[in-house]
Design brief:
By secondary structure, the chain is mostly beta strands. It has a single domain, classed as SH3 type barrels (Roll). It is built from no helices and 8 strands. The chain is globular. It starts with a strand and ends with a strand. It comes from Pedobacter jejuensis.
Length: 70
């Protein structure tokens, strides 16, 4: 199973991605702003989700809101 970003690019362990839409996260004081970089991602069992560190917090993000950095 392949994990793909919003543009259809294949994601792999250690890639860097950018958030394409401001996301509200339950339990966090601040939103994740559009353009935020998430480095060194990890793949999950779900091909539509990745794990990454944002502002010091590890979160699971849906790939439909992410774009692979070139």
């Amino acid at each position: 199973m392949e994990t793909k970003d919003s543009n259809g690019n294949t994601l792999s362990e250690g890639d860097s991605v950018t958030v394409i839409k401001t996301l509200k996260v339950k339990g966090m004081a601040a939103d994740i702003k559009q353009g935020t970089a998430v480095k060194n991602i990890r793949l999950t069992d779900d091909p539509k989700a990745i794990e990454g560190k944002v502002n010091g917090t590890i979160l699971v993000l849906k790939t439909e809101f992410l774009k692979k950095k070139s």
